[in-house]
Amino acid sequence: MFTVLIADDEADHRDLLAIALGRRGYAVVTAPDAPGALDALAKGGIDAALLDIRMPGDTGLDLCRRIRSDPTLETLPIMVISADVHHDRMTAALHAGADDYLAKPFARDELMTRLGDLLHRSAAGAIRSAAASRAALAAARHSLPQPTPVTRRQEITVRHIA
């Protein structure tokens, strides 16, 4: 089961998203603002984040940038959900590090499909990343100079010198 963080200052929006996700089997953690979202992320166990752009204090874009700047969270799938459909705002969200942008109002099926895709791409990326790490480690091991075997004659010479 995946756990999804919903960060939105509107309680009704948080509740509707939480109900929809809960019905599809997701565990949900909610936060009314960026500091609350960061606290939830610090506790761990979050698999994806749904962020509203317009929140008091730090915006969803600010929060997205902070998540991307944290090495422990930088690969977290992030979807921005907002009623703001201006092209500049959507572009800004993607430049801030969002993986997807969903405009309100939206169909629940579209949300579920996009969220599922983000989570599966993230899992596939982690598998590829682990495989790439193993391959890099194996290549590094092979590139190290191999120790030259010590012959019996060298061993005797070393004993006599010592």
UniProtKB/TrEMBL annotation:
This is Response regulatory domain-containing protein. The modification 4-aspartylphosphate is found at residue 52. Residues 3-119 form the Response regulatory domain. Signal peptide: none annotated. Keywords: Phosphoprotein. SMART domains: REC. Coiled coil: none annotated. It comes from Actinoplanes palleronii. Pfam families: Response_reg (PF00072). The keyword Ribonucleoprotein does not apply.
